[in-house]
Design brief:
By secondary structure, the protein is α+β, with helices and mostly antiparallel strands. The chain is globular and about 80 Å long.
Length: about 650
């Protein structure tokens, strides 16, 4: 039957018109457990190292109680803002089920099939698949616990329904033989909790009907596509199956339509994996389900976003971080998804970045990012057999949509200094107030840093978000002007941000006055430059107030530093973390800088930066200009 016509017509609309979807049993791009040429441990082509690792870990936990997300922990979101107590248990339950599913597919042992049955039933009996922090039950029903008659479709619901669909696809025959009726239960819960509300309620905030399209959109829509392709398999559900997939593609189209032509993500690299990467994965599933009819390689934004990870790479496990991203995200990202997208779009540099993380003797994928990603990584022959490659590390990157600039001393090497600078505005997704911020790395390791985010709580996305210190401009490498920090909102915006680069010099320019609307600035021009010939970074600030009043002592520039800091006259010596070479920061010798140590206790911060960060404050009274330089620890002239 013809694929339903979309009401919203973005870049994907014409690509899916007239397609025919494969039958449900063949719709997902992973061989089922009955394909022993893939899953048999004696002759299979799947990732044997990863399977053996998962089976061993699953065996160690099989006799232990399953993790149990408790109602009292769900209520804590509303009581004290803690969301991790419930989420940690729920996530670990799903990861245990993923491990059991792989063990069952590999061994076909009834013991492991029973373990899968137990995990599936636990999910089917879980009151809600929605993460409590996302549920609207409090505002709609006055309840701190999920309202089972009004399920909310969020990231959590999408993840569970897709996990059940992948299990059904992988182990359907075995479940029918071992636990008749279980697959019908899966389909009932999928319809009740996801398919029905997804169709009935079309005002989901994550669809982006108001134009604010963020990473929830492809993450949820991709999971709905997987679930509908596999679980709506009765002949009388064929029309509904096509309708739900069409609705999900239409929603996904809204995301692709606003993805900028340069492929950049304003939430930064860490959120690329759960935004643009999710879109690429969903479209890859559709390409398989349509026998290749869905071909998005001509969509510029999708092709360019494949390059975003390597354009954000500083070196090793370090990446440019803005907004809520971490500078050193977990190393076990689903690199196979990037590798697959790079192959499809012909981006050898992106494929090289992925392959640089394909370490021999290690699993091809982990269960941390969901069963679908685990199965795809384990059964992708090109990824399983990929050889390590050096990362591309481009010399210069300019992303005009987000006004982010990266420059390093030479292409292909993280040795020496690298400069990152941004313009943008303070209404970005997962925003931190950081217009004009700079990051400096040495040997690929950040030394002037963006702290990133602490563990999420209810306050993170509420009215008190900017009470959190990591979100405030006073804890970024930008000025405080007349005691005024940057406010949140798109009205706090950079002006005239642009960049240029030559073999000798890479320069970023921006006027920050618009980011301080209450400070009375006529202009605050920041020039951040990497002088490749001298191996030196220069940050020049020059400003003028609209009333031409002098600069007072409540105007200062902040520098957030990772490493051991020793203040000196006119500068500081910093020994970075991770064994990077020491650097010297220099500023005019009559500036009396102060250092404030920020002790860290949140695990998302300590696992990146260690026990502390140091904020340097440079008072600027009576000045209209200041220059800061960063060099490797070698002598240089004093600044006047």
């Amino acid at each position: 039957m013809p694929f339903p016509t979309a009401a919203f017509r973005g870049p994907l609309a014409t690509l899916v018109e007239g397609i025919t979807l494969r039958a449900p049993a063949q719709a997902l791009p992973v061989p089922p457990a009955s394909d022993r040429a893939v899953w048999d441990p004696r002759a299979g082509s799947a990732d044997r190292i990863g399977i053996d690792d998962l089976v061993a870990r699953a065996g160690g936990e099989r006799a232990t109680p399953w993790p149990h997300p408790r109602a009292s922990d769900a209520a804590r979101v509303h009581r004290d803002g803690d969301r991790t107590a419930w989420e940690d248990a729920a996530f670990e339950r799903q990861r245990r089920l993923s491990r059991a599913a792989v063990a069952a597919a590999s061994t076909l042992d009834e013991m492991w099939i029973d373990e899968v049955v137990d995990g599936v039933v636990l999910l089917c009996e879980q009151s809600s698949w929605c993460w409590p922090a996302h549920d609207d039950t409090r505002s709609v029903h006055g309840s701190v616990l999920a309202t089972v008659t009004d399920p909310f479709v969020d990231l959590g619901a999408g993840e569970v329904v897709a996990q059940l669909a992948w299990i059904d696809h992988l182990l359907g025959d075995q479940l029918d033989a071992r636990a008749p009726g279980l697959r019908a239960r899966i389909r009932h819960e999928a319809r009740t909790r996801v398919f029905a509300p997804f169709q009935r309620r079309r005002d989901w905030h994550w669809i982006g009907l108001d134009g604010d399209v963020h990473n929830w959109n492809p993450w949820i829509h991709g999971n709905v596509i997987v679930a509908a392709l596999r679980l709506l398999d009765r002949p009388d559900e064929a029309v509904e199956r096509d309708r739900i997939v069409a609705l999900a593609v239409e929603g996904l189209d809204r995301y692709v339509a606003v993805l900028p032509a340069d492929g950049a993500i304003d939430e930064g690299y860490a959120y690329w994996w759960n935004g643009a990467a999710r879109a690429l994965e969903a479209l890859d599933v559709l390409a398989h389900a349509s026998d290749g009819a869905v071909d998005t390689t001509a969509v510029t934004a999708l092709r360019e976003t494949v390059a975003f990870p390597h354009r954000s790479h500083l070196g090793g496990d370090w990446f440019v971080n803005h907004a809520d991203g971490q500078a050193r995200p977990p190393a076990d990202q689903p690199w196979h998804a990037l590798h697959r997208a790079a192959r499809r779009h012909g981006d050898t540099a992106a494929a090289d970045l992925a392959a640089s993380h394909r370490r021999p003797g290690t699993p091809a994928a982990t269960e941390r990012e969901g069963l679908g990603r685990l199965l795809r990584g384990m059964t992708d022959p090109a990824w399983v057999s990929a050889s390590p490659a050096p990362p591309p590390l481009p010399r210069d990157v300019w992303l005009p949509s987000t006004q982010v600039f990266l420059a390093r001393e030479r292409a292909g090497s993280s040795d020496g200094l690298a400069l990152v600078a941004k313009g943008g505005h303070n209404g970005e997704h997962h925003n931190h107030n950081d217009v004009g911020a700079v990051v400096v790395a040495v040997d690929g390791v950040p030394v002037l840093v963006d702290a990133g985010r602490p563990t999420y709580t209810a306050a993170t996305f509420g009215p008190d978000r900017y009470d959190i210190w990591t979100m405030q401009s006073a804890w970024h490498n930008v000025p405080v002007v007349r005691g005024v920090a940057q406010p949140a909102g798109a009205h706090a915006v950079a002006r005239d941000a642009h960049a240029e680069a030559t073999d000798d010099l890479a320069v970023f320019h921006v006027d920050l006055a618009g980011a301080y609307p209450e400070a009375g600035l006529a202009s605050w021009r920041r020039r951040a430059a990497l002088d490749r010939t001298r191996g030196r970074i220069e940050i020049d600030d020059a400003w003028r107030f609209a009333d031409d009043a002098p600069t007072t002592d409540d105007t200062r520039v902040h520098l957030l530093v990772a490493g051991e800091v020793t203040l000196e006259r006119g500068g500081a010596r910093v020994v970075p973390i991770e064994g990077a070479r020491a650097v010297r920061l220099r500023w005019p010798s009559d500036i009396e800088a102060t250092a404030e140590v920020r002790e860290l206790d949140d695990p998302l911060l300590t696992e990146v930066w260690g026990e502390r960060l140091t904020r340097l404050a440079l008072p600027l009274a009576s000045r209209t200009h200041v220059q800061l330089t960063v060099e490797l620890d070698t002598p240089t002239e004093d600044l006047r």
